[in-house]
Amino acid sequence: MLFYPGDGIGPEVIKESIKVLNALSIHQITIKESLIGRTAFEATGSFLPESTISLVKTSDAVLLGAVGANRTSDITYYPGPETALLKLRKLMRSSINLRPIKHYDSINTNGSNVSNVSNVQGTDILILRELTSGVYFGKPKNVRKLYTQNNAVSLEGFDTMKYSDSEVRSIAHVAFKTARSRKKKVLSVDKANVLEASKVWRNMVLEVSKCYNDVRLWNNYVDSAVIEILSNPKEFDVVLSGNLFGDILSDQLSIVSGSLGMLPSASLGFNGKGMYEPVHGSAPNLTHRNLANPIAAILSLSMLLRYSFHLNKQSTMIDNAVDNILRKNYKTADISNGKRYVSTSEMGELIASLIRTAF
Ligand code: IPM
Ligand code: MN
After folding, report:
1. DSSP class per residue in 198-209
2. Is the pTM of this model over 0.90?
3. Which ligand approaches the C-alpha of residue 86 most closely?
4. pLDDT of residue 72
5. Which CATH architecture has domain 1-98+270-359?
6. Where are the domains of the chain?
7. Are 347 and 290 in contact (CB under 8 A)?
8. Is 144 within 8 Å of 176 (Cβ atoms)?
């Protein structure tokens, strides 16, 4: 297993995941550390150094903290640290991105005011985001100079949203198969009233659905889907979407969990390798303050143990420890509702020590 602390709060939250991994004393996993993102650029002149790429090729699983640029407001046209993450996803062929959204009774989400308590209790949604295609990767993609009649320069940026029917077919089968072992419901999110890529998406999802008569399928446009889900989150099960819509939906649905700091993710390829990362970014405003919530990273480790190493028992131990610590009312600042909170390292230590006592 390889881990990349990355940028911003990445190293702080990954440190706590490693603490939890050590508490489990799993001997079959060897870990190596490598550089990615802005941190890698500062050390080597590359956001994704060759040494990192060659380690990825020999690793079964990758645990990543975060990558990000600590920008103020403007953005350069040069490739930023995010390109390293996108390249890595492509390199690992991790096209299936699982983003579970759970409600924890011990986290008060009333303040968010999007749904009443009875609708949110028991929510267990799995966002299935296509991760290596769509508008993130479609070509052509560039910024070009346009010359107006009086020879003034104007800039035009363009991206291309593309989905082939075979790409949609693969992820749709994963969605329906996954739903079969859950609540047997799939909501597919698109913008098929406007986008051609979404029309191909919707038609293929409908076609695949015919092989799964026991699973119920809905389709909805992305703008309306968010409201539909947030009005009654516990009614939803698997939410299938393309790359861009899945990115937007997952941040929005974090309201159900109380914070982005609670959302883990797993990116799986068809080659059995996996990449695991918290859904949150590098959060420059929280960096070096021991304030970030390490639970998203710790739960990403839990997904890593389950999906890449089939260590279901250890994965469940982590999930239960997180649940128990929250129930004992230990919260990081993001989920404390203005009340007393614990630091990043305290939260990691609380979870790790609960696991140690189980041995
Ligand atoms: C995410 C992030 C990334 C994405 C960025 C950092 C490239 O927002 O994993 O959700 O857009 O996929
Ligand atoms: Mn995102």
Report:
1. HHHHHHHHHHHH
2. yes
3. 1
4. 62
5. 3-Layer(aba) Sandwich (3.40)
6. 1-98+270-359
7. no
8. no
